[in-house]
Amino acid sequence: MSVRLEVWGDYALFSRPELKVERVTYDVMTPSAARGLLEAIFWHPGMIWRIDKIHVLNPIRFSSIRRNEVDSVINVSKIKAMAEGRGDGGAIYTSESIQQRASTVLRDVRYVIDAHFDMNRKRMSPADSAEKFQSMFMRRAAKGQYFHHPYFGTREFPAEFRVWEGESEPVGFEQGHRDLGYMFYDFDYRNPAQPQPLFFRAALDNGVLDVASAEVRS
């Protein structure tokens, strides 16, 4: 069952994994980010979202900003102590654990996501069906409902959304071919203990990223 969702926002950061010190975004939304956005609106253990195409409606523009990032893991023992009333109420993070880093982000983004979902064996009742799940997603998307607010790569950059209302195909921001190089696709969770990152050679053709026909490799 297929869906078509329009999403937009002021900023986006789809981090390139090979650049770890300073955050640098991919040119367009990654398939895993698109999947996460759909799951924020509706997810069920009996379904798996598959991204088919990402239509890039706005020109690709970059901005450089500085963001505060935490470089340490929360101390679990301190959280437990505070929950049990044994803590001193101090901050979980100190100023030493917060670092300011430069980030190259996208600005004024707008996409249309074409996706479908497959059913799996984790249906919770015999009444679960593709038609039921599609209806639930469309109803939630039309009402602006979500489990957590969708975002573009990081929670600092929220995404707005609506069901695509255009009768014709979405029109990309440019004509022609644009090679984007290798892009992160998603994680392979067949071995949950050691998920493997997957990549594909990405390209925009007339402003459309065709994910369904991509050759994915680890």
TrEMBL record:
Record GO terms (molecular function): endonuclease activity; hydrolase activity; RNA binding
Q: Where are the transmembrane segments?
A: none
Q: Which InterPro entries match?
A: CRISPR-assoc_prot_Cas5, CRISPR-assoc_prot_Cas5_N, CRISPR-assoc_prot_Cas5d
UniProt KW Cell inner membrane keyword:
no
Does the keyword section mention Magnesium? no
- What does the record give as EC number? 3.1.-.-
What superkingdom does the record give? Bacteria
**What Pfam family is a match, any one?**
Cas_Cas5d
Q: Which UniProt keywords apply?
A: Antiviral defense, Endonuclease, Hydrolase, Nuclease, RNA-binding
What does the protein in this record do? Answer: CRISPR (clustered regularly interspaced short palindromic repeat) is an adaptive immune system that provides protection against mobile genetic elements (viruses, transposable elements and conjugative plasmids). CRISPR clusters contain spacers, sequences complementary to antecedent mobile elements, and target invading nucleic acids. CRISPR clusters are transcribed and processed into CRISPR RNA (crRNA).
User: Can you tell me which family this protein belongs to?
Assistant: Belongs to the CRISPR-associated protein Cas5 family. Subtype I-C/Dvulg subfamily.
What is the recorded name of this protein?
Answer: pre-crRNA processing endonuclease
